[in-house]
Amino acid sequence: MAEFSVTVSTGEAIGAGTWNKIAVSLVGTRGETPPLRLDHPGKEFSAGAVEDFQVASPQDVGPLLLLRVHKAPLLLPAPVGPVARDAWFCRWFQLTPPQGAPLRFPCYQWLEGAGSLALRAGAAKVPWADDHPILQQQRQDELKARQDSYHWKTYSPGWPHCLDEKSVKDLDLNIKYSVMKNSCFYLKVSSAITELKLKGLLDRKGPWKSLNEMKRMFNFRKTPAAEYTLEHWQEDTFFASQFLNGLNPVLIRRCGHLPENFPVTDDMVAPVLGPGTSLQAELERGSLFLVDHGILCGVRTNLINGKPQFSAAPMTLLYQSPGGGPLLPLAIQLSQTPGPASPIFLPSDNKWDWLLAKTWVRNAEFSVHEAVTHLLHAHLLPEVFTMATLRQLPHCHPLFKSTGIGIGGFSELIQRNMEQLNYSVLCLPEDIQARGVKDIPNYYYRDDGLKIWGMPFSLETREALVQYVTMVIFNCSAKHYAVSAGQFDSCVWMPNLPASMQLPPPTSKGQTRPEGFLATLPPVNATCDIIVALWLLSKEPGDQRPLGTYPEEHFTEEAPQQSIATFQSRLTQISKEIRERNQELALPYTYLDPPLIENSVSI
Q1: Edge-to-edge, what's the strand order for the sheet holding 344-345?
Q2: How many angstroms separate the CA atoms of 47 and 468, rounded?
Q3: What pLDDT shows up at residue 394?
Q4: Beta strands of 311-391 (E only): which ranges?
Q5: Strand, coil or helix: what is 84?
Q6: Across residues 524-543, what is the average pLDDT?
Q7: Cα-to-chain-centroid distance, residue 521
Q8: Measured between alpha carbons, how far is 308 from 316 in angstroms, rounded to an integer?
Q9: Backbone phi, then psi, for 57, in 5-degree steps?
Q10: Exposure check for the chain: N or C terminus, fewer CB within 10 A?
Q11: DSSP state, 296?
């Protein structure tokens, strides 16, 4: 009879401990022991505990293959209801034989109710490395259990498939927010709503009285980036820079020729281009860029406070001034159909005409960002990746209530983008190349993102697999943070990023007045709804795990441990470079600073 030492680590989360009985069976090449109870005087398996037990194997099972964990109610007959489930979060088991090195069996999951779970030692193995029928069978059983638990469904036609559950309440504990994270999230929601109610803003359905009154939102919350936005939102250089380093830095592309439906002329842009050049010369030089929100053309719109909202599908032409100068807007057309009712707005126009045209572009940015860049690319597609690999669900959170296009418009945009989506769009190096923006200066999203991506171009089979995995990790971590963390910074000064527009786009010049500009913007209550939502979605509510941090030690070999250490060291260096650069910037770009990036989609 052989004596084994068993060390068990219970998670530290609220409710991680259990009163249930825990036993283990040793599974080897020559058999399996009966369940061996883990018991000693006093309470076992409390949250945060690391405990040692001694068990005696009644037989020689040969070289160990698996550790089978058994969980059963302490009392018989078993109780019913929540007490019967008595969930336990187990981090790991460590088994030390009479002779030989300890074996670590990672678990890192909740065990609910009574049942058994087979654990492998912490060595990574591909299917063909399973050299024993017991291991082969365990792999098949685990996959079948996951497939039985997590089913695909179509949430809406044209959307990516997702997990087949009716609500978050139906999810098992392994794919829910932690108790702490949920608590922090709902406390933040409650405090924000209460604050805006007390200020008399949340339920006020009328328009804002003035731009100055909108500054009251800064009494709600403010950040250095938000204050910079308030100060500079009307400037052309800041308007253009947001296509590079704002919350949606993925639409701008080099313009090789002007679209036929965007008839900009030399006379229109001469005041910005200056003497001695022309549109054609700048096109050939590669200094013109286009942002086309054509995906919004004809999209259905929402009702807010019983009033129909309006949408535009603008095109914006931008100019990269020589010598590393700023990016500047040249012209804006607010529809995809040129003509007398769709004038081309210019920086030389009346101040309020030009400001309103830019604000319509910012509204289009909001709609495309929230529906496509954020919801589809950074939530719905990562859910597909996760379901297809680990069969787990990131928490998704579409914004529908107070946006100008609503859930119907969101659905249309997602369907349209899915029809044209291709693999290269999700691979940062290929996307940068395809959009022709590899050398545009001051594009920090590109510069920082490529450092974190760290994947060389290659079409070899092994490298292609690495690129795919890199794409998944990058989109679920760095890109999600880049397009999510700046939402509040961009929107708390609402005219910079209006979620809806209450009047239709202008069809002529010279008609815009300050009161008309104000009347076009969202009403007070809709502004509050969006700002509260984006504040919550911009900030991690707790339980943060920065990129490169792996508290769950699933693999114990030296090779993955060394890879993790190398990755962490590189991220530290990237962060140092970013922070040194940001010291020289009037508006630091922090949305790809590794310590701030979540390991995965977490909010």
Answers
A1: 253-254, 288-292, 315-320, 327-333, 344-345
A2: 38
A3: 23
A4: 315-320, 327-333, 344-345
A5: helix
A6: 84
A7: 28
A8: 26
A9: -85, 125
A10: N
A11: G
Q: Which two tokens stand for residue 484?
A: 């999510």
What distances in angstroms separate CA 87 from CA 83, 114, 543, one per listed residue?
9, 9, 20
Burial of 390-401, coded b for 16+ CB within 10 Å and e otherwise, reads ebbbbbbebbbe
Whether the per-residue pLDDT at 457 is higher than 80: the answer is no
**How far is it, in rounded angstroms, from Cα 345 to Cα 355?**
10
The binding site for Fe cation comprises 374, 379, 480, 603
* pLDDT computed for residue 349 by the predictor: 96
Distance of CA 459 to the CA centre of its chain: 28
pLDDT for res 296: 96
- Is residue 399 scored above 50 in pLDDT? no
Binding-site residues from annotation = 15, 17, 39, 86-87, 374, 379, 480, 603
In angstroms, the CA 352 to CA 346 distance is 11
Q: Report the alpha-carbon distance of residue 552 to residue 569 in Å, rounded.
A: 19
The answer to whether the beta carbons of residues 383 and 164 sit under 8 Å apart is no
Does an H or E element contain 10, and which? strand 2-10
**How far, in Å, CA of 472 to CA of 394, rounded?**
13
Q: What is the mean pLDDT of residues 141-167?
A: 84
Amino acid at 20: N
Return the ∠ at Cα 383 (arms to 380 and 384), rounded to 5°. 95
Determine phi and psi for 514, rounding to 5 degrees: -55, -40
Percentage of the chain exceeding pLDDT 90: 60
Residues in the chain: 603
- How many Cβ atoms from other residues are within 10 Å of residue 190's Cβ? 10
pTM: 0.89
The per-residue DSSP string of 513-568 comes to -HHHHHHHSPPHHHHHHHHHHHHHHHS--S---BTT---S----SHHHHHHHHHHH
Listed in sequence order, the residues at least 6 apart from 90 whose beta carbon sits closer than 8 Å to its beta carbon are 8, 9, 10, 11, 69, 107, 108, 109, 111
Q: Which residues make Cβ contacts (< 8 Å) with residue 325, sequence separation at least 6?
A: none
Task: Report the C-alpha gap between 113 and 447 in whole angstroms.
Answer: 49
Cα 127 from Cα 139, distance rounded (Å): 8
Alpha carbons 60 and 2: distance in angstroms, whole number: 8
Provide the token pair at 517: 């500009």
Whether the predicted pLDDT of 249 surpasses 90: yes
